Amino acid sequence: DKGGWSSFMAKEVSEEPEAVANTLRGRIRDGEVVIPELDGLDELFTDVSRIIIIACGTAAYAGQVGKYAIEQWTRVPVDVELAHEFRYRDPVIGPDTLVVSISQSGETMDTLMAVKYAREHGARTLSICNTQGATIPRESDAIVYTHAGPEVAVASTKAFVAQITALYLMGLHVGRIRGTISPADAADHVRELEAVPGKIAQILEREQPRIEQFAGWMADTRSVLFLGRHVGYPIALEGALKLKELAYIHAEGFAAGELKHGPIALIEPGQPVFVIVPSPRESAEMHKKVISSIEEIRARGARVIAIAEEGDAAVLPKSDEVLRIPLAGTFFEPLLAVVPLHIFAMGLATAKGLDVDQPRNLAKSVTVE
Ligand code: F6R
């Protein structure tokens, strides 16, 4: 039931705040992360020296965002690998490896086969999954469910923000067990997480109509580029994937620092480029670097659509459009910056008269390898 929305996707984007809030529910006690499902499973995290995250598509981008925070909080090296690549390269894994799979459906065959492979080769396995009782969690040593609620639209939206939330909960849990994060820092991050649902709701309320309007003006666009740095990089990839799958437009995401190593040759007058701008309060250095990327592409005629925090005045004179997100710590910005990109892809596809719930050639759950 679409509950009065024009599509399941519109409904599910509107549910992004709840997807985060429900994934946090029951897992924070007195400002500390407590994950009941992981009770008695400490050795899963103390006996390993590395983490490999495996997933496909949007779930893999959630994994890439999670990597930055988990490494920072646990000091355990984290690799992120596409499930279908992982299994076929004879990966070096064993009992010292924790393989964390991420899957909304819990039925993606590529991911399932990679989890089975990891188990057979002695690795520990943890599943982050949105579907109770699905196959992948049943094949894993531990499960942390995301509670995004059923996702019907083919394109994953609310599950993505729930997956990042679950990865952060896991990271804070492991950081506490391993003693790699101070209680004060952990409490700060918990507060940030708890503030995310309200901030996403603000973006939906304040920016959605404007984003849909200019997505409508862009219905004839043939190509859109997305730039991000650090945690903004996987968000750029996610923005591009959504546009490809929903609006059938050529779209590519790049790490902003990679521009000068090739992609800048693509920039010609009028080329729309979304840029995810990191907070100047959180990292003046990264902010400066991204601003200088904007200057380089704008000098070559790009039409810059910046996603930047409220109050960041430096982006204004350098961008054609600025989409504002509320202030947040570095690791929490991706949970906000992705929302305008989901709205944009949906808005552009709708303006082209396409079915956003059921894009051509795609299935919700890919149960073949
Ligand atoms: C993109 C999308 C897909 C899925 C991918 C993994 O919007 O929906 O890329 O994220 O097929 O699916 P799950 O999470 O069910 O394993």
From TrEMBL:
<keyword id="KW-0963">Cytoplasm</keyword>
<dbReference type="GO" id="GO:0006002">
    <property type="term" value="P:fructose 6-phosphate metabolic process"/>
</dbReference>
<protein>
    <recommendedName>
        <fullName>Glutamine--fructose-6-phosphate aminotransferase [isomerizing]</fullName>
        <ecNumber>2.6.1.16</ecNumber>
    </recommendedName>
</protein>
<dbReference type="GO" id="GO:0005829">
    <property type="term" value="C:cytosol"/>
</dbReference>
<comment type="subunit">
    <text>Homodimer.</text>
</comment>
<dbReference type="GO" id="GO:0005975">
    <property type="term" value="P:carbohydrate metabolic process"/>
</dbReference>
<keyword id="KW-0677">Repeat</keyword>
<dbReference type="GO" id="GO:0004360">
    <property type="term" value="F:glutamine-fructose-6-phosphate transaminase (isomerizing) activity"/>
</dbReference>
<keyword id="KW-0808">Transferase</keyword>
<dbReference type="GO" id="GO:0006487">
    <property type="term" value="P:protein N-linked glycosylation"/>
</dbReference>
<feature type="active site" description="For Fru-6P isomerization activity">
    <location>
        <position position="364"/>
    </location>
</feature>
<keyword id="KW-0032">Aminotransferase</keyword>
<dbReference type="GO" id="GO:0097367">
    <property type="term" value="F:carbohydrate derivative binding"/>
</dbReference>
<comment type="function">
    <text>Catalyzes the first step in hexosamine metabolism, converting fructose-6P into glucosamine-6P using glutamine as a nitrogen source.</text>
</comment>
<keyword id="KW-0315">Glutamine amidotransferase</keyword>
<feature type="domain" description="SIS">
    <location>
        <begin position="214"/>
        <end position="359"/>
    </location>
</feature>
<feature type="domain" description="SIS">
    <location>
        <begin position="41"/>
        <end position="180"/>
    </location>
</feature>
<dbReference type="GO" id="GO:0006047">
    <property type="term" value="P:UDP-N-acetylglucosamine metabolic process"/>
</dbReference>
